[in-house]
Amino acid sequence: MSSTPELRDRLGYLLKHAFMQLDDLVTAVLAPHNINGRELGLLIHIAAHEPASQQQIAQRMQIDRTTMVALLDTLEAKGVVARRPHAEDRRRNVVALTDHGQQILKLGQEASAKAERQFLEPLSGDVATKFRTALQAIVK
Amino acid sequence: MSSTPELRDRLGYLLKHAFMQLDDLVTAVLAPHNINGRELGLLIHIAAHEPASQQQIAQRMQIDRTTMVALLDTLEAKGVVARRPHAEDRRRNVVALTDHGQQILKLGQEASAKAERQFLEPLSGDVATKFRTALQAIVK
DNA sequence: TATTGTTATACTCTATAACTATA
DNA sequence: TATAGTTATAGAGTATAACAATA
Known about the structure:
The structure is a homodimer. Chain A has helices spanning about 10-30, 35-50, 55-60, 65-75, 100-120, 125-140; strands at about 50-55, 80-85, 95. By secondary structure, chain A is mainly α. The first copy, chain A, has a three-stranded antiparallel sheet with strand order 1-3-2. In chain A, helix 1 crosses helix 5 (about 100-120), helix 2 (about 35-50) packs across helix 5 and helix 3 (about 55-60) crosses helix 4. Chains A and B meet through helix 1, helix 2, helix 5 and helix 6 of A and helix 1, helix 2, helix 5 and helix 6 of B. Chain A binds a DNA duplex through helix 4.
């Protein structure tokens, strides 16, 4: 007596829509800071590592280097990151957060954490923690 | 003594990459059947409901009706769905699976289930079940 | 020769506007 | 006049190829 499989039973459907729901929340709370979730991700990555060239950042974030150019153009126009010439290798740009970027990073992370709490609201604290742990075990 | 927040700590990162990993697995196992995960989702939806017009399907799946046209064009070219004129309202198309589509649906669902098992392999059976339940609680 | 950053280009996915045929 | 399906078009996001500057 198995019922007809529904779209909502597909893990792909669930993961895609979960991401979209969270992304909507994150976009909303970050809007006052003039960045989006993807840009915050880049700020977090830059802040967490030694000063790096565009290529190094692109490789570590698994973003195409031509895509990185456009992303950094946007963030530089917003004044949150700066490109400086590398001291020894003049082909490279060293990418770093500006003071304003440090501020936006801090505010953005607080806002993002708030969006995550909203997103996880349907789960109890214990289940939410296990949910995150499961995701970390799955994502390589 | 909190360490620097890393990109991998962000729920958005985890959900996006989890989806991409699963999508890669699903794409691989569905390739022999000449459909992708999105198309299988549409076949599942059509099979699970009463015969419906393109618009009804688009609304229920939250897909734009112009996107639905292109999706159905592809699936019709592959011979898995057929558009038939509605008996009473000739503006409408009734969309249904062909016999071949029924076959592809069955094979595709088996393949998709296999991909999901691969995807959930890092989790114990119990944790995997709770993971899916948590996703269902979150997704509206 | 190889590498870094860049530009030009194209392809996918999605959405908006406008057209057609039917109601 | 409103609706179903369609087409044309444009906007994101991403990827490939080719170029200039530098190593």
